[in-house]
Each structure stands twice: as C-alpha cells, then as structure tokens.
C-alpha cells in the first residue's frame, strides 16, 4: 500500500499545515497592539547571518513562507519589538524568520510529543512552552549580554578618555577601542564605527547602539557626550567622571547583592525545597502521597500550596530587589 496515499498520513500533513498557519496567526495576535518603532539602521553584518540568508534563499517554499510571515507580522505591528529583542541579544535572525520558527515549533513540538508519549497533558505543556519559551530565551540572552556590556563600560570610557588625551579624535578613538575590547563592547563599537564610515553621525550611531543594548549606563554616557558636544568642555575629563560614577554604582550594587544573598537563598529554597521534598516522599512511599493527586481535598491542597509558594517567592523577590 502506498504510504503517501494513506488517509491518516494525508490528514496528519494537512493538520500540520493548518496548524502552522493557525500558530502564525496566534503569535501575531500575541504581539498586536504593542507600540513598535523600526530601527534606524537594519544590518546583518556577520557571516552567520549571510549563511542563514543563503540557506533560506536556497529553498523557495521557505523563502516564500518567510516573506508571507513578514507581511502578516508587519500588518500586525510586531516586527519592531521582535527586531529589538533579536538585536539586543545579537541573534543573526530576521524577525519574520523568528516568528515562523516559533509558529512551526508551536505545532510540531506538541504533535511530536503527543505521538511519542500519547499524553495530552504533555502536548498541552509543549504548546505553552513553545508560546513563551523562544522569546524568553532570546530576552535572557539579551539580558546577560547587556550585563557583560555594562561591566565593560567603565574601563571602556577610561580607555576612550586616554585616547582623547593622546590627541586622537572621537572617531579614531572609537575605532581603536572597538578593535581592542572584547565582545560585546567591541562588537557594538565596531557597528558604531561602521555606521559612522557610511555617513551617519557618531552621536546618532551611539544613540542607536544605546537603544539596541538598552543599557541605562551606556545611555547616560552617550547623553553626556551629546551634551558636551553642544556646550563644549573637556570630554576626556567628563568621561573619567562618568566612568568613576559607574564604578561606584557597580560597587554599591555588589554590596547590595551580598547583603541580600540570604533573602535570595531563602526565596530559592522556598520554591525548590517543598516540591523537592514532596517528590522524594512520593518516590519513597507512593501510597502515602497518592491521596494528594487522587482525591479532591488533596488536589485543593496542592493548588493552594502552589499559589502560596508562588506568591511567597514573588513577595520575597520583590523585597530583596533594591535599585541603586
């Protein structure tokens, strides 16, 4: 019997196609109504992005799907927000490609999970994971990258001030700094230098980099440079003062983090200890823990416990977060 003619296989293929379309629409609906602004310069400068472009262009159906997704997402007004998240994380993927990949995973992962495990619960969990997990991963990567960038910023400003004292212009100092510093600072400054060489003003390129990184410290430094360019003064001395202020702020953040370590550990133990102890007891004596999942009072107790643990975690987490 021809497998391709099997009605079950045809139904499965048709379901996947329809599911991908519905998933794309769902993802677009999630991003509807968010205020977005297209970035001033959209570039994909590295070889990773070029290889990805070549791979997409080599498959006409995939290229057409990406174009269709881009048109739909543009009408829904969500390309800008996805673009900013990808640029902040330095992920060489276009917004339409990201949306298409997430929508496809939204269908394929739950379907594969159900076919393998025959569990509706796991399939639903797969749907929930694919709705929230991809962009959460991208934002986490961007957050970690921003943290490394902020840690490099005081030394970068000090080095920039030294280059200016040595007689270099701002553009020359930026060029030298971009080649000396490690990523992510070096990579972002190389983008700024490349944009300046293409005719864009240095201040506009720095402002766009500050928006891309979304670092308050870097935005503060760029604003200080813009004010100095308008009113005049010693830029090298200004950069030294800004760098020293940032070092003191980072030192205070470290002290606050050390003083709140006990509270963070307590919040972590609140989340991990009780469920972990319950799992150990269930593994040791399953009959003793069975009423929690087989009886109505037990399910109510589990639900109330989950709400209380979640509320306690967010409450303690809010208490130990101190802005410096």
Structure description:
With about 325 residues, this protein is mainly alpha-helical. The protein contains 15 helices and no strands. The N terminus is likely disordered.
Task: Note the topology.
Blueprint: H1 7-30, H2 47-57, H3 60-76, H4 79-89, H5 95-117, H6 120-165, H7 170-180, H8 185-197, H9 202-213, H10 216-231, H11 235-259, H12 261-284, H13 286-289, H14 291-294, H15 296-319
Helix pairs in contact: 1-3, 1-5, 3-5, 4-5, 4-6, 5-6, 6-7, 6-11, 7-8, 8-9, 9-10, 10-11, 12-15
Give the number of helices: 15
* DSSP strand tally: 0
Radius of gyration: 26 Å
- Which segments are poorly predicted (pLDDT under 50) over 5 or more consecutive residues? 1-5, 25-45
How much beta, percentage-wise? under 5%
Terminal Cα separation, in Å? Answer: 70 Å
- Structural shape: flat
User: What's the order of the H and E elements?
Assistant: HHHHHHHHHHHHHHH
Provide mean pLDDT, rounded: 80
Give the proportion of residues in helices: over 70%
User: What composes the largest sheet?
Assistant: none
Kindly name the structural category: mainly alpha
Task: Characterize this entry briefly.
It is built from 15 helices and no strands. The chain has helices spanning 7-30, 47-57, 60-76, 79-89, 95-117, 120-165, 170-180, 185-197, 202-213, 216-231, 235-259, 261-284, 286-289, 291-294, 296-319.
For the structure shown, list the relevant keywords.
single chain, 324 residues, 0% strand, mainly alpha
């Amino acid at each position: 019997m021809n497998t391709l003619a099997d009605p079950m296989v045809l139904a499965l293929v048709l379901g996947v196609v329809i599911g991908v379309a519905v998933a794309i629409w769902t993802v677009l609906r999630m991003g509807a109504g968010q205020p977005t602004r297209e970035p001033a310069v959209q570039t994909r400068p590295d070889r990773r992005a070029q290889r990805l472009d070549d791979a997409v262009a080599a498959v006409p159906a995939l290229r057409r799907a990406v174009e269709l997704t881009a048109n739909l997402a543009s009408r829904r007004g969500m390309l800008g927000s996805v673009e900013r998240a990808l640029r902040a994380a330095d992920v060489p993927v276009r917004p339409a490609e990201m949306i298409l990949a997430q929508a496809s995973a939204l269908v394929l992962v739950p379907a594969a999970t159900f076919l393998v495990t025959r569990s509706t619960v796991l399939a639903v969990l797969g749907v929930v994971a694919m709705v929230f997990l991809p962009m959460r991963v991208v934002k986490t990567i961007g957050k970690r990258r921003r943290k490394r960038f902020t840690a490099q910023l005081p030394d970068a400003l000090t080095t920039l001030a030294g280059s200016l004292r040595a007689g270099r212009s701002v553009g020359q100092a930026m060029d030298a700094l971009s080649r000396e510093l490690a990523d992510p600072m070096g990579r972002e400054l190389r983008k700024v230098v490349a944009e300046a060489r293409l005719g864009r003003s240095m201040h506009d390129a720095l402002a766009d980099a500050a928006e891309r990184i979304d670092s308050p410290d870097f935005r503060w430094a760029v604003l200080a440079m813009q004010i100095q360019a308008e009113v005049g003064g010693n830029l090298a001395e200004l950069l030294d003062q800004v760098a020293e202020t940032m070092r003191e702020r980072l030192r205070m953040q470290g002290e606050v983090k050390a003083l709140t370590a006990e509270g963070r550990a307590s919040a972590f133990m609140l989340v991990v200890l009780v469920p972990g102890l319950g799992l150990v007891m269930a593994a040791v004596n399953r009959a003793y823990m069975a009423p929690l999942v087989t009886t109505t009072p037990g399910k109510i107790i589990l639900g109330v416990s989950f709400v209380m643990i979640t509320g306690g975690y967010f409450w303690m987490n809010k208490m130990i977060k101190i802005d410096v």
